[in-house]
Write a structure and sequence with these properties.
heterodimer; A: 10 helices; 6% strand; globular; B: alpha/beta; five-stranded mixed beta sheet
Chain lengths: 236, 155
């Protein structure tokens, strides 16, 4: 982000925008940024709140009037915390039978059936989906994940294609988990997906197998499968 | 909240490792005309693109073009990092790419106009100098479109 603003401004185009990691921006000294305290991935702060988003934009546009720089200003407004009783509850009960020895394929396929109505609701409510980088139906992507866990050497599968499959499956799940109107806590949505679902367990299993490889390239793929916090904070 | 002091140590260390030295003395363009007469383009490093565009590679300094008349339901995200929240984008495109907010600002004459084309990069794993060629290409396209202001959003 800072690099792009640097080169655009060298070319005579004035830039302003949002910084999410103040320390990184401070070091690179780009011309103008507004630092916000919002979570990574949410530069405008709050989904579905045009007034909130507009206040952030106007503050960043205001920096264009400064006479000298670099400018790195702190946006004064934090995201309002959401009271526990205001957070939308997860629509799906993921409790598993005590001894479920079904294959990954069967468990993933069963879970897809649980998620499908909520994904459909999301699609109807929002009129859009962000599923679509792997360019295959969800059922096929689920099968691809199950197959990756069934082969003796996971490094032998097409890891790039597997990553794209997982990104689409995560989008499918997260859209379903946030389908109901109301506030959704991003950390809780992520926790449910990574630790309460079969998909989450399958992704962590893939991560662990890749991370155990002696190849730096394969280990790098592991880091592109599971976030650091979810890989490190396993539920008992 | 992304105050580094609020993050777990492994995340904090990862982000601090991304602290780089400046590319050079800070270039600084001063305001030439009021906001209401400006033409604005949006540029994001969120790895957004259309479904039929090429997905971003794991290390990729190229860009994708987002035409100004896009509908909000067409964009997907193929950013290589998994260490940020995507559920906000999944609920509302504008939390990452605030195209509806900027259209409103044009309607209300707060800003002059929006560019014919906006741009998307993927900000991960690529060192800052590697963006020079593609960023300068984008600058040339924007100048041709009489864009004088760019609004940048990361993830």
């Amino acid at each position: 982000m800072s690099a792009i603003s640097y080169f655009l401004e060298l070319e005579g185009i004035q830039t302003t925008g949002i910084s999410l990691v103040r320390e990184n921006t401070e070091c690179l000294k780009p011309p103008r940024f507004l630092w916000t305290s919002f979570p990574l991935g949410r530069p405008l702060g709050k989904p579905g709140d045009p007034a909130f988003q507009r206040r952030v934009i106007m503050a960043a546009l205001g920096l264009l009037e400064r006479e000298s720089g670099p400018v790195l200003e702190d946006y004064p407004e934090d995201l309002p915390s959401v009271a526990a009783d205001e957070v939308s509850v997860c629509p799906v009960n993921f409790s598993m039978p005590a001894a479920d020895d079904s294959s990954w394929q069967v468990r993933l396929a069963n879970e897809r059936l649980l998620m499908q109505p909520w994904y459909s609701l999301s699609l109807r409510r929002r009129g859009r989906t962000t599923v679509g980088i792997a360019k295959a139906p969800i059922e096929e992507l689920m099968a691809q994940v199950a197959q990756a866990l069934d082969v003796p050497d996971i490094a032998s599968v097409d890891l790039k294609s597997l990553k794209y499959a997982l990104e689409d499956l995560k989008a499918f799940y997260q859209e379903a988990l946030t389908a109901q109107p109301g506030n959704h806590d991003p950390q809780e949505t992520a926790r449910i997906m990574w630790h309460d679902t079969v998909l989450g367990r399958s992704m962590l299993a893939i991560h662990d197998r890749l991370a155990a490889s002696e190849s730096a390239r394969i280990q790098a793929f592991a880091r592109g499968i599971a976030p650091r916090d979810q890989a490190q904070n396993r539920s008992p | 909240m992304v105050r580094l002091t609020d993050l777990p140590e492994h995340d904090r260390n990862h982000l601090i490792a991304k602290n780089m030295t400046p590319l050079g003395p800070t270039p600084f363009v001063r305001m030439q005309k009021p906001l209401a007469h400006r033409r604005v383009a949006l540029i994001t490093t969120a790895g957004l693109h259309f479904r039929d565009d090429a997905v971003f590679d794991l290390m990729d300094a190229s860009y994708r073009v987002i035409p100004g008349d896009l509908r909000g339901d067409e964009l997907v995200m193929s950013h290589s990092s998994v260490n940020y929240d995507r559920s906000g984008f999944q609920q509302d495109l504008n939390v990452v790419f605030p195209i509806d907010r900027f259209r409103e600002l044009v309607d209300e004459k707060v800003i002059g106009s929006l560019a014919d084309q906006h741009f998307s990069f993927m900000g991960a794993l690529v060192l800052p100098p590697k963006y020079e060629a593609s960023a300068r290409q984008v600058a040339a396209i924007l100048r041709k479109d009489h864009v004088d202001t760019v609004f940048l959003t990361p993830v």
